């Protein structure tokens, strides 16, 4: 019996959060109530928060004042969620160029600034205020909770590791944080038999109560466990994210570990959607954001995707007043879900599956598999020097990294070294080079591919 978890959940965690001035626990309690509201009541809540956001953005940001004035709009003309359609989409390039103009002149001030590459290969900088951060934290705990992850559980994170850019003090603080919360982090990028065997060894030793993983990483580990008959544990729920979860990968994960729960999020706004026990699409985080799936028709008009149709994900972050993001296009495609009650009883609307977010697997010089998101974490902290990147593994095995520099014509020495360090660590025995380009072409289907594996052209018959 696990006596520490209830103590951690009920006493220690709330105390930690309260000591840091974070209302995570009361917000989580609130979200457990609102998730049962009717869709109409939730839309009313969103409309109220949207009005507040637009009013603030109009009063305090140069960008949104100009946008509303140009269209002859006033904040008071926003009565319902549908009124959002009067505002333009915020594409990733526009996010970058309007960064200063979207930063609010009045309080609340931003307290967190971070850059992100998501999985689309285009880094973006976001800033947000404390309130936004609290909602993000609580929303994440709520969504992960549907997959059985309760505060205080022993959690194994099979994830991409951030580069060691932080100071010693930050690293110690992080290690202490992880120990108190009982988190074990294992790098999921190396996928050789040896690396997978090590992960299984750690899993047996640590006995996690939940696993949080990159989807393709969890699938590779699951396949290894199943092929070698290594499972010796009772069901462990697996919460996956960062990449799309394919049905065949889900089947492998269930066999190797236990039920799989897909989540979808990005560092710009955190958890956007999470799967419940009904395993049929992901409930969106309606109390913290408005999630739209939009289709841009050939004539330039923008409309909502119909049920079953894929649309571009556009997010309005309802609690970020410091640097508002309204109708921010994340670069992902998601399939619209038919409206209707979920068997779980929650009123939150659903989306999914996510299309795109597919990364291919690379191979090192010994032929060992390497996760395709290998450079993403690094580029997430290098947005100031690189606008876009793409990894290409050529037929001869060599790896070419195409980079669109942000300023100048190449990466500065420090960042250049960091990229080569990552390549040397994860792709040993591979000829690695960087090519600087002005832009990276989309696929014929209009998608951005972060990883391209060149394959032999089949001989003509
Ligand atoms: Zn549900």
Bound molecules: zinc ion
Number of helices, where a helix is a run of at least 4 consecutive DSSP H or I residues:
13
Q: How much of the polypeptide forms β-strand, as a percent range? A: 15-25%
If you average the pLDDT, what whole number results? 88
List how many beta strands DSSP finds.
20
Distance between the termini: 65 Å
Helix content: 25-40%
- Class based on secondary structure composition and strand pairing: alpha/beta
User: What topology, given as strand order, has the largest sheet?
Assistant: 4-3-5-6-7-8-9-14-13-12-10-11
Verbal overview:
The chain is of the alpha/beta class. The protein is 34% helix and 23% strand. The strands form four sheets. Strands 4-3-5-6-7-8-9-14-13-12-10-11 form a twelve-stranded mixed beta sheet, with helices on both faces. Helix 2 packs across helix 7, helix 3 packs across helix 4 and helix 10 crosses helix 11 (247-256). The protein is globular. The model has no long low-confidence stretch (mean pLDDT 88). Zinc ion is lined by residues 276, 278, 283, 342, 344, 346.
Question: How would you summarize this macromolecular structure in one to three sentences?
Answer:
It is built from 13 helices and 20 strands.
Task: Give short descriptive properties of this protein.
alpha/beta, 12-stranded mixed β-sheet, 13 helices, 34% helix, globular, binds zinc ion
Write the layout of secondary structure elements.
Elements: H1 4-19, H2 24-34, H3 39-60, H4 62-70, H5 92-97, H6 99-102, E1 112-116, E2 124-128, H7 130-146, E3 155-159, H8 168-181, E4 183-187, H9 193-206, E5 210-214, H10 215-227, E6 238-241, H11 247-256, E7 260-266, E8 270-275, E9 282-284, E10 289-296, E11 302-304, E12 310-317, E13 328-336, E14 350-355, E15 362-363, E16 369-370, H12 376-380, E17 386-393, E18 399-405, H13 413-426, E19 432-436, E20 451-453
Parallel strand pairs: 3-4, 3-5, 5-6, 6-7, 17-20, 18-19
Antiparallel strand pairs: 1-2, 7-8, 8-9, 9-14, 10-11, 10-12, 12-13, 13-14, 15-16, 17-18
The chain binds zinc ion.
